[in-house]
Amino acid sequence: MKKKFVEYTLEELVALETQLREEFDHTQHHKLTLNLSRGKPASDQLALSNGLESVIKDQYITASGTDVRNYGDLRGIKEARELGAQLMDAPAENIIAGGNSSLFLMHLVMSTALKAGLWGDNRKWSDAQPPKILTPVPGYDRHFALTESLGVEMVNIDIGENGPDMKHALELIKTDSSIKGIWCVPQYSNPTGCTYSPETIDALVELPAKAAARDFLVLADNAYSVHHLETPNEHMKSIFAAAQSAGTANHVVQFASTSKITFAGGGIAFVASGEQVLSSLETALGFMMIGADKVNQLKHSRFLSGRIQSHMQAHADLLKPKFSLVEKHLEQALGGLGIAQWSTPKGGYFVSLDLLPGLAADVVAMAHSAGLTLTPAGATFPYGKDPKDRNVRIAPSFATLDELQSAMQILTLCVKLASSRKLIETRH
Questions:
Q1: Does residue 50 fall inside a structural domain?
Q2: Are 282 and 272 in contact (CB under 8 A)?
Q3: Co-location of 38 and 82 in the same domain
Q4: Cis peptide before 321 (omega within 30 of 0)
Q5: Of 251, 282, 307, which residue constitutes the final position of a domain?
Q6: Structure pTM?
Q7: Which of 268, 291, 307 is the last residue of a domain?
Q8: How distant, in Å, are the alpha carbons of 68, 90, 99, 179, 282 from that of 65?
Q9: Distance (Å, rounded) from C-alpha 252 to C-alpha 245?
Q10: What is the mean pLDDT of each run of 10 residues along the chain (428 residues)?
Q11: From 77, 150, 233, 378, which residue has the greatest number of CB atoms within 10 Å?
């Protein structure tokens, strides 16, 4: 059994720090250029979808007779909406299929809620000064950046193995009408990898009925709904079905995309909600376009029809060894030392690493000086401020196995070196 760092004498810690510093200095001399900062598909994953470019075969007419080369269909073609239904476990008639960016649809929902309202009764978020939204942490930096750009204030709530702290969320929203919603990534959450429990899903969709704000929204980013690493897959309760049962379907909005299923820059995105919300979004879209890229929607629908499961298994076959390598390195290098904890996700794109408080920024900077770029410390918290300065997000997908091997050696070395230094400081 390994000896925990806190069990070392001061003399032992000093000797350990000297040894680790020599290893680190040696690593710096190699002048490596490694990157674990973004959860991007690797080239071999993208190659799984190369067949997209040949599925049209001059057949541009949908089953309903729509010529996808022409204008129209603000809600997207039926085939694309049916694809979205599979990704979000929601009815096709409750889905809008858009362009290549789910972030665009998130911006559309939030800006419409702010400026015009989503329910046709003049309820708008901008009536609150400032409007606020709950943000489970650690979470997704793009959600935070989008929210901040629109002038919406963020309020942190902790996330655990089963999802956000719903008791705390309910306490906050019951008395504060300026809190207008909650962000969440319910399946394989970014970055912790947790999947919300059925109880959390039920509590989540019940929030709008209990909130002081009558225009409260649940914003559920289902980016990783089919990105499983394990068999059998980790099943999540249908958010749409739960919202229908709770009577809050018009206050629960889901998002998804094919960005990590096919081509990251050339996919299609989806939004699902009740008819009131979809109608408001369709009106807003009508001022921006006369129809999405239906050719691309048809390509994706034909390419993925009847083969989502096998296609995603091919992704898992490429990703699983990378996540296994990360877990092996963390366990072998840091396990039992009492200086770090990490997630072991069953899907998604990230591993969340928690260090001793006050060390995340130091570890990220140290790793960078050794040739390893990580997601900036604090990025998994609103405004880039991790109150405990302890969370580091690991994104294994893009690197090769050899690169990942080197990157994890550097990262774990930096964690041990920073931890030994911190414990030495506390002894003086």
A1: no
A2: no
A3: no
A4: no
A5: 307
A6: 0.96
A7: 307
A8: 9, 24, 21, 45, 22
A9: 12
A10: 91 96 92 92 97 94 95 96 97 97 97 94 88 98 98 97 97 97 97 97 98 97 96 91 98 98 96 97 96 96 96 98 98 98 97 98 97 97 98 98 97 98 91
A11: 77
